[in-house]
Amino acid sequence: MAVHTILSSTEIKKILSRYKIGVFEKYIGIKEGIENTNYLVFTSKNKFILTIYEERTKDELIPFYMDVMYNSSINGIKCPTPIKDKNNQLINIIKKKSYGFFKFINGNSKKIWSKNNCFEVGKELARFHVVNKNIITSNKNNYGLNFWNTTFNKCKNFISKELPGSFEIIAEELNFLNKSWPLNLPEGIIHADLFPDNVLFSKSQKISGMIDFYFACKDYFSYDIAVLINAWCFPKNTFNKIFMHNILKGYESIRKLQTIEKKKMNILLRGSPLRFLLTRIIDVQKKSKNKILEIKNPDDFLKRLIFHKNINNSNYDI
Q1: Residue 293 confidence (pLDDT)
Q2: Most buried residue among 60, 100, 125, 206 by CB atoms closer than 10 A?
Q3: Dist CA 209 CA 120 (whole Å)
Q4: β-pair type (24-29, 47-52)
Q5: Buried (b) or exposed (e) across 47-75, using 16+ Cβ within 10 A?
Q6: Global pTM?
């Protein structure tokens, strides 16, 4: 359960008093997700999402995330819209943590998805890249190659214990990526975490919202596609080439990939599972301190890493 900060109804009512969004009725902790705490809050006017930013979300970056969501929203991307309080503020503090309120988006994430869903999510990611291309930020990806190296060195002993036989695989892969990571690919604002639980669909199977922008940063557009492919194209940990092709078709219906982006795709597809493998290892370590933290299996991304390691671009048919 991803409710790290426990709030009472009294505390929720006190928070609501800062806003003009109705009288408190009830609230529910949202289990999906890992990083931040989210509550669904019902008022006399509507439903809203209360997000409390936890330790991985740096306070100094929250205004950037708000800008990305606002700019995306006004340019037609369906996503959370931040709400200002009575003092015209988007961000406030509770229990020494920053929080914000957002308009609720109707829809549900999918546990099982289709090739058509993959086309739509690829298309929506491309639209997100295009509408935010002019945002200027110094917020580079904090979970890139430097993070992978540092985390691996810190977690060496734990990795061997948690995933027997994985140490040599990860060490070898890091050595490869340090030598091979591409330079000067097209870049801009990326989502960096567009997993199935971060995409909501309406009953008509259309995307009703992209959510959870708290890893958004400046990085390669094609790295964001690699994250998307690793998140959506391995149902039951088995690679689905049709899903990948539909993601790419959807994406290229909005923004054409350059030849160099396609050429480097295998390397990017090897890097992105390593990122999530390592952060899940960190979460496993934290489990002993936070009993309510829902842990996702790091082995899922070890299997994806091994898959991409053993093939090349020609096997993807791109």
Answers
A1: 54
A2: 125
A3: 12
A4: unpaired
A5: bbbbbbbbeebeeebbebbbbbbebbbee
A6: 0.90
